[in-house]
Amino acid sequence: MDQHRIYNMTFSSIYGSLLKKVERKNRTQAELDEIIRWMTNYSQEELDNYKTNDRTVREFYDNARLNENRHLITGSICGVKIAEIQQPLMKEIRYMDKLVDELAKGKAIEKIKRQPK
Length: 117
Hints:
Elements lengths: L10 H14 L4 H12 L3 H9 L4 H6 L13 E2 L2 E2 L6 H17 L4 H4 L5
InterPro entries: SP1917_dom_sf, UCP033199
Protein name: DUF2200 domain-containing protein
Pfam family, one: DUF2200
């Protein structure tokens, strides 16, 4: 199994980077939390717990109840097409990266939270 180093990083450290990214573009922590909750189905309390403890990114995704519409997230992130990512955990991480990029670029929250047509 591919063991990328991000899998064992704490979610709290990753969250801090995501927050800085969206705040630089005048988006809010509440908006970031909303798209993370959409993706993971965590409550705000559960998400807050991950933001403040030493649990890993792997644990964060392993315990999530991932949104069934996340497969509607398409495109590329860091030059890699999401559809071509083979490792399941990395694909989930890249889905989240794509959502955060869209938020930072000013996309409306309701469009970020994919719904089937």
